[in-house]
Every structure is written in C-alpha cells, then in structure tokens.
Design a protein that fits this description.
Its EC number is 2.5.1.19. One of its GO terms (cellular component) is cytoplasm. Keywords: Amino-acid biosynthesis, Aromatic amino acid biosynthesis, Cytoplasm, Transferase. By secondary structure, this protein is of the alpha+beta class. The protein folds into two domains: about 220 residues, Enolpyruvate transferase domain (UDP-n-acetylglucosamine1-carboxyvinyl-transferase, Chain); about 210 residues, Enolpyruvate transferase domain (UDP-n-acetylglucosamine1-carboxyvinyl-transferase, Chain, Alpha-beta prism), CATH 3.65.10. It is built from twelve helices and 23 strands. α7 runs parallel beside α9 and α7 packs parallel to α11. The radius of gyration is 21 Å and the shape is globular. It binds shikimate-3-phosphate (S3P).
C-alpha cells in the first residue's frame, strides 16, 4: 500500500463565506498513539472518534501485521485486543508507513525494543524525510537500525541485545522524536528521559497516563520507567485542531462568516494557531471548554474580522507547526507584513512548506519572500481577475487545503493539483468544506 498522490484536483471558485456548524475528523496525532498504546496494552482498548485517514490507517494496518487483532474502524470506532508489552509478532513483509512521518518515527522507537526484526518503508515524500533525529538517540540506547541513505527510510531494525535508558536533550523541538524515545524507553533497562528545547505536543505523555503508566515530568524533562505495563482503556479522540485550522483561517478572512467548529481538541501544546490568529485580530471564541479522557476539548466560534500582519512569536512555532501553511494564507489577507522566523522545521515536512507556500502565494500575486528559517509575507489582493491560478500542492495535504481556503478571498478561480494526499489527514475535506460554504469541486 502507498498513499502516493494520484493527481486528484480541486477546483475553487472565488468568494463565499463559511457559516454554520462543523465537526472535523478526529485528531491524527492522538489516533496514531491510540493504536500503538492499545496494541501493546494488556486487555481491550475501545476508541471512538478515530481518524479514518490514510496516515492513521497505515499505523492500524502495521499493528495488524504485527499480530494485533483490531476491529474497525467503523464510524470512528476501533476495538483493539491488546497483546501486552511482549506480545507483538514479526510481520511477514516490510511495514508500509505511506506518507506518515509520525507512524515511521514512533514505530521505529517501539520496534527497536522488540525481539524480532522489522523493516519500515514509506512513499517518495516520506523516503526523503530525515530519520537520523530518531535513529541516532535510539542507537545510543543500544538499538540496531540501518537506514537506506545516510539518513532516510527504508529503516531496517534488528533486535538489540538490550536497550538501556538514556537522558537525552532534543536538538530540535519534536514531539515525534520525544515520543519515539519514550516508546523505546518502555522496553529499556532503567529510566529514559527526554528534555525538550521548547514545549511540543504532549499526547504521548497524557495517553501513557490514561493507560496506567504515569510519565514523570519536571519542567521540560519527561521520564518513563523501563518494563512498565499498560492497561487497556476507553479513549475518545477529539476533532483535530490541525484540520479545524483551515476553517479558523477561512472564516476569519471571508467577510460575513460565522462558523462553529465542534468538539475540537485544545490541548495547550496545540493551540498556537489560535494565539497567532488572535494576535492578528481574529475573532475566535472558545465555548464550552471540557475535558475528554485527559485531553481538553471545546467548541470554537469564529467570525470574520480584519487581520493585520504580525511578527509571529518564535515560542508559538512548535505549538502551531502544522498550521503554519494556513496561517500564511491569513497573512496574505492581512494588512501589512507578517514575519515568521525560527521555523526551519517546515522545510522537512511532507514538502518544503516554506518554498512550496511561497511559490503558490507568488502565483496568486502575493509578495512572499522565503527565508532559511521562515518567510516574510506582504498582505495584498489574492489572484488576478478572470484568470485561473494553478497551484501545485506537491502532494502535501496541508498545502492543498491551505490554498483551497485562500479562494474565499481570491479575485479569480484557483485550481490545485496533486490533492489525493488530503485523505492522509482529512478524508472528506471537500464535501465538508462545501457544506459550510466553500465553493469547491473535486475532479
Ligand atoms: C506530530 C508531531 C509534529 C507534527 C506532525 C505530527 C506527532 O512533528 O508536525 O504532523 O504526532 O507527534 P514533529 O514533532 O517532528 O515536529
């Protein structure tokens, strides 16, 4: 299986407003972790709100191939018969992670501690993404991992004589690396600790606690004990704020919009996009905040508002890392200049999101100047009258959806190429978006 783009195209007519209520699909990061922890837990885990997108399904299929019985997904429900910490079995062929960096990096840590060998492969985009950030610290723990090139998948993991806990300081703020090491740490002798340079999403830590395996936190340092056992549980997965972000931006930039996004996860390690948009002048209200199985959730009401350019605070970058392409569209519609720095990580996502967004914005007539670690965007008028702007998403789901919402403020039509990978994180995007007012057609 691969999730390579098949060339599906979005056609967008300009204008419109976003109104009504909408629940976007389940959180991708949490969906991956639910499958992983449920699989190595003792007893059953029942999940609702699971994201039936290609990335999370790649994780689900991988665990089936590792011998775990998993029912579903059906309407977001999944039931896992956990095999316990030592119950995984070798897969009979390489495990295909498709387009999913989270699957590959987290599984690399988890599989490094098994008594059998595994091979992890991915699509063309994933096979270009840096893996040394996980293989190097895992090797320090004693893991045996071979990469294809210097630094890239396929990854061949062979059984280690023993994994030993380490005390590791992350060179980049990465929840994927942190989580990979914590998962390996469950199989290591002694304690495994990770210190992050800036806060990153903490779903692994929260979910380990929900499975009865508390993670010790002391400031920026988190630690797990080797040998801990997990207990199956019930998990309700909130709607993904990363998917909601397209609508937060869309309703902010489209005059007359008034949209409520229901049951969105507002974990404080994910809400950078709300802080950035509010600093730009957005009208976003957090309604009915509540707690769902250890994760904070709320409804988000967003109404159109005039936006102004800002210097994006660097500490918000890891808290909004996946939402920055959508923020660039907000910046293009804002008055004045928006400046982003400290975001070089964007260059090693599913595409080089700094360059690809700058190219697309230029197509729409926006002055966007890419920098090594960010971008400068001058707000202006999107698109040229009576012509169609053709945007290449480079097979990157978040690029495709960002330019789709840009149409709300464009002066001409927009066509976006290579959109099949939207299904990695947001299956049904076009239909849901059309339902609240986006003038989108798929072909
Ligand atoms: C993710 C972490 C982030 C994010 C990715 C999902 C996760 O990556 O970009 O889409 O689920 O842990 P990094 O931690 O590498 O920044």
């Amino acid at each position: 299986m691969t999730t390579a783009a098949s060339g599906q195209r979005f056609h967008l007519s300009q204008g419109g407003a976003l109104c009504g209520r909408l629940r976007v699909p389940g959180d991708k990061s949490i969906s991956h972790r639910a499958i992983m922890l449920g699989s190595i837990a003792d007893g059953e885990t029942e999940i609702s709100g699971f994201l039936e997108g290609a990335d999370a399904l790649a994780t689900l299929r991988a665990f089936r191939r590792l011998g775990v019985e998993i029912d579903g997904p059906r309407g977001g429900r999944v039931r896992i018969r956990g095999v316990g910490r030592d119950g995984l079995r070798p897969a009979d062929a390489p495990l295909d992670m498709g387009n999913s960096g989270t699957s590959m990096r987290l599984l690399c840590g988890l599989l490094a501690g098994q008594r059998f060998a595994s091979t992890l492969v991915g699509d063309a985009s994933l096979s270009r993404r840096p893996m040394r950030r996980v293989t190097e610290p895992l090797a320090e723990m004693g893991a045996q991992i071979e990469t294809a090139g210097e630094d890239t998948a396929p990854l061949r993991i062979t059984p280690a004589a023993e994994l030993v806990g380490i005390d590791y300081r992350l060179p980049v703020a990465s929840a994927q690396v942190k989580s990979s090491l914590l998962l390996a740490g469950l199989y290591a002798r002694g304690q495994t600790c990770v210190t992050e340079p800036a806060p990153t999403r903490d779903h692994t830590e929260r979910m380990l606690a929900a499975f009865g395996c508390p993670v010790a936190r002391d400031g920026a340092r988190v630690c797990v004990e080797g040998g801990a056992r997990l207990r199956g549980c019930r998990l309700e997965i909130p709607a993904d704020i990363s998917s909601a972000a397209f609508f937060l931006v869309g309703a902010s930039i489209a005059p007359g919009s008034d949209l409520t996004l229901e049951h969105v996860g507002i974990n404080p390690t994910r809400t950078g996009v709300i802080d950035i948009l509010r600093a730009m002048g957005a009208d976003i209200r957090i309604e009915a905040p509540r707690d769902v199985g250890g994760e904070p959730v709320a409804d988000l009401r967003v109404r159109a508002a005039p936006l102004r350019g800002i210097q994006i605070p660097e500490e918000l970058v890891p808290l909004a890392i996946d939402e920055l392409p959508a923020v660039f569209i907000a910046a293009a519609c804002a008055e004045g200049e928006t400046v982003l720095t400290g975001a070089e990580e964007l260059r090693v996502k599913e595409s080089d999101r700094i360059q690809v967004m700058a190219d697309g914005l230029a197509r729409l007539g926006i002055a966007a100047e890419p920098q090594l670690d960010g971008i400068r965007i001058q707000g202006g008028r999107l698109g040229t009258d009576e012509t169609t702007a053709l945007i290449d998403s480079h097979g990157d789901h978040r690029i495709a959806m960002s330019f789709a919402i840009a149409a709300l403020r464009a002066s001409g039509t927009i066509e976006i190429d290579d959109c099949a990978n939207v299904a990695t994180s947001f299956p049904g995007f076009a239909a849901l978006a059309a339902g609240v007012g986006l003038r989108i057609r798929e072909a």
